[in-house]
Amino acid sequence: MEEVAVIGLGAVGSMALWRLASRGVRVVGFERFGAAHSRGSSHGETRMNKIIGDQPAPYKPLARRADELWKRLEEESGRQLAVESGGLVIGPKDGPYVTRARRLADAQEMPYEEIDADEIRRRYPVHAVDDGDVALVDPHAGYLRSEDGIRAALLRAKALGAETHFDTVATLVRDEGDAGVVVDVDGEERRFRRVVLSAGAWIPQEMPDAAPVAPVRINATWFSPNDERAPLDAEHFPVFMRELADGRIGWGFPQVSERGVKIGLHGRYGTPVIDATANDRPVAPDEVAAIADFVRAGFPALVPTPSTAVPCMVTWAPDETFAIGSPEGWENVVVMSACSGHGFKYAPASGELAAQLALGEEPFADISAFDLTRFTDAEPVGTPRIG
Predict the structure, then answer these.
(1) What local confidence, expressed as pLDDT, does residue 386 receive?
(2) What confidence score (pLDDT) does residue 283 get?
(3) In which element (H, E) is residue 29 found?
(4) 387 pLDDT tier (thresholds 50, 70, 90)
(5) Separation CA 308–CA 158 (nearest Å)
(6) C-alpha distances in Å from residue 197, one per residue of 18, 147, 151, 260, 337
(7) How far apart are CA 143 and CA 26, in angstroms?
(8) Over the range 174-205, which residues count as b (16 or more CB within 10 Å of their CB) and which as e?
(9) Exposure string (b/e) for 51-78, b if CB count within 10 Å is 16 or more?
(10) What is the pLDDT of residue 25?
């Protein structure tokens, strides 16, 4: 019987493979597509990291451990993965989003500077703000290079002895207790002592009774300036969360490639995904209408029609919180699910938890808030709202 298998080598799976291999464990990873592919939930150049007010209490120990492991992965891989560009939370001074971010930051003694609308216009001229707007400036926020992070973890895992199989479909068959977990690998049965299931939007298909989570189709969208002189670098256009006067909230990143700046909408929206493998159809104009309206309202220096739009997916839990644990009847399988739109920055810590749970180690943090048993009496996730 082989030791540990990791099914799904995206953000969490690649990190789990690395953390298991770092312990000298015999571990095999399976991915139905290629390394750092664009068919799941972790592509699109960048992911936000540590912006002010976005770390509720259960995630704080994960955030600390993730910081440590991102630094370690940078050192081991020789790649810059975390960029401390600074970040903004913008909105009406007493609006709900700014108020919540300010309250969380104060409670956690996070440093920030609050500036008024005139100062926003001076420092960050691409943002068109109202006179009553303020910005909370977080000097330690930034972004992560998403595909580079996955590739770095996979390369380190392989260097440490992990075995990887890409373009390979691995499917759980049954858990036979002390006899291990039977996995169908492209039609051939293999047996593993433990399995980490980190298949993202494919988890509802792979293990439908594990948790009432639901993937939805969203899109990653980039925008170009209508004036090439518009400053879109990290100094003048850092990562941000922004609430407009009408309550719409969006997020964005500085320009890191010829695609332009990446901007998206915050919250539960999108189209339910029944078959995650079929989510590769091109983006239709009506799918980007809402984000185009947001850009038109808040960023007149940008062309509101996306210069690039690619499909992506978010897998939501009913409470928008991680789902981690072993479902009944699958005691040798560790499910790592439902990043709910905010999981990438914690990926190394989630991979560490996956390794610890798979090996019977004591988790480095209290993860009771993420336990699968909380869904016992939960209703299935409904259709997400649009907007």
Answers:
(1) 27
(2) 97
(3) strand 27-30
(4) very low
(5) 33
(6) 15, 20, 19, 35, 8
(7) 32
(8) ebeeeebbbbebeeeebebbbbbbbbbbbbbe
(9) bbbbbeeebeebeebbbebbeebeebbe
(10) 96
Q: Which two tokens stand for residue 283?
A: 């983006």
DSSP secondary structure of 126-191: TS---TTEEEEEETT-EEEEHHHHHHHHHHHHHHTT-EEE-S--EEEEEE-GGG-EEEEETTEEEE
pLDDT value at residue 56 = 78
DSSP string, 287-347: GGHHHHHHHHHH-TTB-SS-SEEEEEEEEE-TTSS-EEE--TT-TTEEEEE--TT--GGGH
Contact residues for 373 (Cβ-Cβ < 8 A; gap 6+): 325
Per-residue pLDDT of 13-62, as tens digits, reads 999 999 999 999 999 999 999 999 999 999 999 999 978 877 778 999 99
Report the distance separating Cα 27 and Cα 38, nearest Å. 24
Report whether 90 contacts 123 (CB < 8 A): no
**pLDDT reading at 382 higher than 70:** no
pTM of the full structure: 0.95
Q: Which two tokens stand for residue 193?
A: 């002592």
Average pLDDT, the chain: 94
Give residue-wise pLDDT tens across range 251-283: 999 999 999 999 999 988 899 999 999 999 999
CATH class, 2-78+145-210+318-375 region: alpha beta
> 17 with 155: CB under 8 angstroms?
no
118 burial type by CB count under 10 A (0-12 exposed, 13-18 middle, 19+ buried): exposed
Residue written as token pair 């910005």: 135
CA angle 192, 193, 198 (to 5 degrees): 70
Q: The CATH number of 83-143+215-316 is which of 3.20.20.70, 3.40.30.10, 3.30.9.10, 3.40.50.150?
A: 3.30.9.10
Domain residue ranges of the chain, discontinuous segments joined by +: 2-78+145-210+318-375, 83-143+215-316
